[in-house]
Fold this protein.
Amino acid sequence: MNIRFAPNTLYYGDCLDIMADFPDNYIDLICLDPPFNSDEKYNKVFKDSGLLIDPQIKAFDDVWLWDNTSAERVEHVKNAVANPASKVIAGFEGFIPQSKMLSYTSYMAERLFIMHRILKDTGSIYLHCDPYASHYLKLVMDAIFGENNFRNEIVWCYHAGGATKKHFPKKHDILLLYGKNANVSYHDAPRGIPYRDFYAYDKKGNIQTDKGYHPDGKMVPDWWEISAISSVASERLGYPTQKPLALYERIIKASSNAGDLVLDPFAGCGTTIEAAKKNGRDVIGIDILPFALRLINRYRLAPNGITPLPIEGVPVDMDTARQLAKTVPFKFQDWTISLIDGLASNPQKVGDDGIDGFGMFLNKPDNMDRKAIIVQVTGASGSQKAKFDRLHANIRNENAAMGILITLDAQTAQRNWKHTLNPIRMGETTYAPIQCFSIEEYYRNNKRWDQILTLPSLANPWTGKQIQQKILFEE
Ligand SMILES: C[S@@+](CC[C@H](N)C(=O)[O-])C[C@H]1O[C@@H](n2cnc3c(N)ncnc32)[C@H](O)[C@@H]1O
């Protein structure tokens, strides 16, 4: 699929591939918040559904596994001698061989090397990470950006999350700030931390600026107290790993100017994109989940009166869908599954006949009685009766309540295909336990999946909570 490069665009794909085609010295500010090794399993919510298979929906932290891909990547990075981090990765290999951290640091070294090339000479980069990885990543950043260009280790402090009695509760993330060289744009303008009373106020309560205090407040130091997104925050979109807008607005204001181009190569649900657009910057966002990119347009830009951004790298019609199915079948799977709000892809790519995605619905409003949906996708042309039978067997074997078969072509004979599953009754409504969804019908029905499938209202597959937001459809 041909990809068009332009500011104010969202790209679907691995940022490694997308950024490889960007010109040198192109971006003014890069903010990246790559997958963390949170060890947080988002599949807990499926436990109550009775589903036998473990869905492993982990919001794409599979770069944290040590597997054959990691071994190949480490070899590749070590041999890429133009990348100054190749020696760091070779050193890590001696120190932490075949480890999750070696997998992750080699993955980041490949991508950070490209980010250095595409960053302008006056540009800055903020790498968001946690205290488990920050010291390893700092060595990689020192190698690629140069230790002279290290500017700050910003500590973002928050209160949210659990507590423990075994050690001090861990309540901060780290953001490593580097410039491309000594001439980076930086504004000390993001003040706004009010002076306390013990600073010089006159009797009327005004700060005595003649004493040298800035009327807008104190300068912000390198530790920032900004609330994390709580479970009831109005800006919360239910996307795992969403970061607060205030955090990214501070970064954008400090290290870019109006009209600058800001890149987030791991855009998620678009905190950087909203912060940048609201402050008059141009943006590019990349994510490996098309669902995330659609969230950005629906919930970040449209409600703020900002024109939704074109999404590149996703099919736009049957021809491009067919092409994607043929050339990159796993990308086709992820894309099709993401078209239906509330379904999540299986990050373990399984090939033919395996389960490609999961969803769930709540049988009762108390959120306790969860039922699982499994999804199978095929990009092959023609009748998919055999795939239907396989899905039927998988629903039974895995104790799912429902199955969805996604195909390219409409399955005209599907009404006559036999199965032995019971319909699902909820109140007055009955739902077919196995349903077909085709890309052909999707385009024929103006991209409205609800015209093709009749599903109970789905829960967020990461949190298990009912999806509250009005479901909007792709424009
Ligand atoms: C920690 S989240 C980013 C969250 C984001 N800061 C926000 O506030 O929503 C990391 C994101 O990176 C995406 N991702 C993982 N690997 C990727 C890759 N190779 N290329 C592009 N995006 C990737 C994931 O889908 C996920 O949305």
